[in-house]
Design brief:
Layout (H helix, E strand, L loop, with lengths): L3 H16 L33 H5 L2 H34 L7 H26 L9 H13 L2 H23 L6 H29 L4 H21 L3 H6 L4 H9 L2 H20 L5 H9 L4
Bound molecules: fe (ii) ion (2 copies).
Amino acid sequence: MVNSESDDIFETLLESAKRLSFDSRDSNLCQLEIGDNERHGMTPQWSPLFGTPIWNRLSESECVQVTRSEVAHFLGVGIWLEVGLQVALLRAKHSADPARSDVKFLFNECADENLHSLMFANAVKSIGSKFYPRDRMLDFFGFIFRHLAWGEVAHGIVLAGEEIFDVMQRDWMNSDNVATPIRRAAYIHVVEESRHMMYARQNIRQQLIGVSRLRRFISTLLIAAGTHVIAKSLINRRMYDALGLDWAVVKLDIDGNEHHRMMFRKAAGPFIEFLNKEGLLNLGARWIYRKSNLL
Ligand SMILES: [Fe+2]
Ligand SMILES: [Fe+2]
């Protein structure tokens, strides 16, 4: 049952969406500007390879190729998350009263997510990159998530993805050395996702009211496991293979890259803080977040 305080929050989110939303079908978003051909796909500091021996051996234009492929893969994971969250959340709300403000906001959120996915697909094409096949295990995880994740677990894993992308994209949109279509897409995404994150946080708080310690314990671990899968999925062997880089060396360099670990911890910072505040961070979860380089 939705209480009136929550109702107010969802109504506020709907009002905000009315005032500040973008049409990401606008083809001007993907127009390249002078100099874009030499610009990175994302802020190079977000490359898992940044500063490693491999990175330092590559020429500037090869590094640009690397970040363009990496951003395509990151955004591919983003699309996969956006589609998956819709399936999971719509499944849970399929029979709910459509006049409820939380359900109406979900409709708005799904509209946003579809346009984001379309915007990312167009942005990736505009910089001459392509998506890479994901690991089979990830698709299996997606199947489980879509069909079985409940309330706080579904919203928790969704929030993990949204928070991590939010931190990264705030850098991308402000980096002069990033191609304009990616900067524009990052800006739109940051603005519209801030509402999604509020929606997820509010849903999680609501779902946890009065739950048993056992359920909280299980949900805490499942959110951590889901977040681990997302964090690991951002590094894709097939993408580096396609660039002609030796995976064995790439893996060694990424595993030993303290800068990369620091950036991932930075990306997860706000999410971990939220989990801590809401009592969703136990010993087991901390161990998993450390394994994922998020803590
Ligand atoms: Fe999105
Ligand atoms: Fe979202």
